[in-house]
Design the sequence.
């Protein structure tokens, strides 16, 4: 059994490897893979049946999520997106009211579009348990293991959700081909995803 320090070091090394790999992926490739993954999401029973959905807002080197967010809003689903604040260890998951509000999101911390820090939109907690959480990551396996960016935001969020509602929501990761690996280091706090969608 590897020690906690060994796992941390292995995760850090893998993040560096994937970051370097992503630098070689063209914007055209990301667009093509995004289109394929987005179609898989739209065709999935999970997306169709979910009413309360959390979706990450992508930054560089990730499957783009704009089309998923806009489609969910069009279908009158309750859509929630993350907000991160400097110095805080937990992210908020806040209601996105419509496409216009989405278009006006600020690009703030880490280049992520999110609600302005001065705004006070409703939290997912005002609506109840989430049905589906669409998550980013640095690396994924086909079995649903996920390597995050190292801040633990999503794992904390999911454990908080389980504490509040007695269950995890359905969890889905979106991956570029360059982010898929055979295996990755994990700790007891890492939540295994229900599904990872990739282009092929």
Sequence:
């Amino acid at each position: 059994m590897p020690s906690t320090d060994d796992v941390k070091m292995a995760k850090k090394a893998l993040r560096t490897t994937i970051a370097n790999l992503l630098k070689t992926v063209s914007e055209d490739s990301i667009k093509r893979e995004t289109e394929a993954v987005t179609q898989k999401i739209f065709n999935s029973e999970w997306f169709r049946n979910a009413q309360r959905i959390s979706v990450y807002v992508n930054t560089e080197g990730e499957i783009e999520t704009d089309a998923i967010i806009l489609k969910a809003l069009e279908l009158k689903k309750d859509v929630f997106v993350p907000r991160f604040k400097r110095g805080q260890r937990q992210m908020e998951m806040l209601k996105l009211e419509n496409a216009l509000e989405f278009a006006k999101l600020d690009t703030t911390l880490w280049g992520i579009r999110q609600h302005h820090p001065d705004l006070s939109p409703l939290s997912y907690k005002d609506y109840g348990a989430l049905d589906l959480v669409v998550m980013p990551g640095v690396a994924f396996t086909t079995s649903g293991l996920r390597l995050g960016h190292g801040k633990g935001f999503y794992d904390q969020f999911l454990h908080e959700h389980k504490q509040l509602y007695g269950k995890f929501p359905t969890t889905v990761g979106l991956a570029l081909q360059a982010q898929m690996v055979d295996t990755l280091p994990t700790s007891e706090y890492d939540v295994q995803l229900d599904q990872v969608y990739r282009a092929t």
